[in-house]
Amino acid sequence: MKYRSALLSGLVTLLSSVAHSQCVVSQDAKNRVITTCQFYAPKNGLLVNRPDRSQALTQVTFLGSEYLTYPIWQDGTLESGDPKKPIPCQIAFNIATNVVKCRFEGDEQEYEVQPEAFTIHDMRFTSQLRDKGSKTSRVYYMVLYAGKTRLLKQIRSNLSVVKRDAYSLEQSFDGTFINSKTYFIQRNNERLRVVNLSRKSVLGVLKDPTSQLDNYITQRKLDVNQLVDVVAYYDGFQK
């Protein structure tokens, strides 16, 4: 059991780099989205891609997936430069690695892309540049409201691996992909500021010396739709 747990821990870091064919996202008999991964495990416990006689095929199944949608490929458009000239393609957005992949019509190749923005159905994502050492990459956020003030949502996925031991009951899955959401407010292209679904947090981020916003928000806790409404109201009386 400890050996299997060690393999699973190694697989967490491997998922982002393994070939697409090694991990398959599907639905089970209960219509749950699952990710099934196969890999070869030699006696030393390291995960490798090329089998030999000393390696055994191991399969693990996780609840959920590291992608935004199911099926993972969805019709969408990319924006690069001119938003009035979107580029159609099928998009797979990996919210665990923040990687956007694209398949163009008539081309079987999958391309990793970094568009300024992209849209999947009615969900539009915009990006912020991030410097990591000598490399520059983009971080993607879903746009909930866009005016002088913007409300953005970042969706991330992390794999929680089940730790098994000799006394544990048999588990249906070897781990679960857990999604998290973080909300940001951006005013006049300034830095993003985290905001929670509460009156106190909103008033702390959106400074309003006129107290109009203070009087407008009557509830201590807000849902997402109320947060969008509050930001739109605030935007309405800003110069």
TrEMBL record:
<keyword id="KW-0732">Signal</keyword>
<protein>
    <recommendedName>
        <fullName>DUF4369 domain-containing protein</fullName>
    </recommendedName>
</protein>
<feature type="signal peptide">
    <location>
        <begin position="1"/>
        <end position="21"/>
    </location>
</feature>
